[in-house]
Amino acid sequence: MTDPYPLKPFRVSTAATLCAIMRAYPLVTLISGAAGTAQTTLIPLLVEGSSLDDLALIGHLDRNNAHSGALVPGAPLSFLFQGPNAYASPDLYPGPQLPGWLY
């Protein structure tokens, strides 16, 4: 059986398009670990390289972030690129509502 997701109209298969999407929307959910013990962290990444063969994702985690211990050579990682988003300052809202990000 072939994998039905993502649906065919939303699949991207060319390296140039994938790199362009990653550069345009650098906010990533970093995922590591097995089911039940997975770590997730929201992190902005810089994308360097022009093909998937020489691609480098560069970001920063605080040493005290629980996820930092999972980032070891050879460990499986997943990167979920979020798409369009922006930080929304609490100064934009007159009431007690506290936004973080606009999706």
Outline of the structure:
By secondary structure, the protein is mainly beta. The protein has one helix at residues 15-24; strands at residues 27-32, 39-44, 46-48, 56-58, 77-81, 86-87, 101-102. The model has no long low-confidence stretch (mean pLDDT 80).
Describe the secondary structure blueprint for this structure.
Layout: H1 15-24, E1 27-32, E2 39-44, E3 46-48, E4 56-58, E5 77-81, E6 86-87, E7 101-102
Antiparallel strand pairs: 1-2, 1-5, 3-4, 6-7
Report what the structure shows.
- The protein is globular, with a radius of gyration of 16 Å.
- It has 103 residues and is mainly β.
- The model has no long low-confidence stretch (mean pLDDT 80).
- The strands form three sheets. A three-stranded antiparallel β-sheet has the order 2-1-5, with no helix packed on it. Strands 3-4 form a two-stranded antiparallel ribbon. It has a two-stranded antiparallel ribbon with strand order 6-7.
- The chain has one helix and seven strands.
- It has one helix spanning 15-24, and strands at residues 27-32, 39-44, 46-48, 56-58, 77-81, 86-87, 101-102.
- The N and C termini lie far apart (33 Å).
* Mean pLDDT over the residues: 80
Strands of the widest sheet, in order across it, are 2-1-5
- The string of secondary-structure elements, in order, is HEEEEEEE
Q: Give me the Rg, rounded.
A: 16 Å
Oligomer: single chain
Q: Largest sheet at a glance?
A: 3 strands, antiparallel
